Amino acid sequence: MYDWYMNIYDFKVKNIKGGEVPLSKFEGKVMLIVNTATHCGFTPQYEGLEKLYKKYHKKGLEILDFPCNQFANQAPESNQEIASFCALHYKTSFETFAKIDVNGKYADPLFKYLKKQKGGILGAIKWNFTKFLVDRQGNVVKRFAPSVEPEKMADDIEQLI
């Protein structure tokens, strides 16, 4: 659960092995937080996400990948299998975290917070590859629909780097 006065750096998430990672680890960085899936029509966006990461990581961009199996069972693998799939097929080098829910009763508190900050219509995440852009001060500045390709976010990222 989260309280209204919390900021993004107060959250802790699980890494691929189930260990706790405080988001304060990314303080001062620009973050792109994405709910993903390995068997989705948008899965090829991993390639674009990796290109963004390679281009901007040294300037302060972190991509946080949160697999989610809530949409048509499109991420059925284990956490480790998902990480291996991404590395093998898309050569991803950004961090993949443990699989989570983004909507409903069991939604991860981080995603409840992100939706509250940039809710869109009714706040719910409609599909995999919804993306949230967070500035260096921890403000959620923009939400991108699943259909927005990573390359189209470059200008927004450059403004924050």
Topology:
Layout: E1 12-14, E2 20-22, E3 30-36, H1 45-56, E4 61-67, H2 79-90, E5 95-96, H3 109-117, E6 131-134, E7 140-144, H4 154-160
Parallel strand pairs: 3-4, 4-5
Antiparallel strand pairs: 1-2, 3-6, 6-7
Task: Write up what this structure looks like.
- With 161 residues, the protein is of the alpha/beta class.
- The strands form two sheets. A five-stranded mixed β-sheet has the order 5-4-3-6-7. A two-stranded antiparallel sheet has the order 1-2.
- Helix 1 (45-56) links the parallel strand 3 (30-36) and strand 4.
- The model has no long low-confidence stretch (mean pLDDT 92).
- It has helices spanning 45-56, 79-90, 109-117, 154-160, and strands at 12-14, 20-22, 30-36, 61-67, 95-96, 131-134, 140-144.
Number of strands: 7
- What's the N-to-C terminus distance? 30 Å
> Structural class of the secondary structure composition?
alpha/beta
Q: What summary fits the major beta sheet?
A: 5 strands, mixed
Give the overall form. Answer: globular
Share of helix, binned? 10-25%
- Beta percentage is 15-25%
Q: Give the strand order, joined by hyphens, for the main sheet.
A: 5-4-3-6-7
Features:
4 helices; 161 residues; alpha/beta; five-stranded mixed sheet
Summarize this structure briefly.
By secondary structure, this protein is of the alpha/beta class. It has four helices and seven strands.
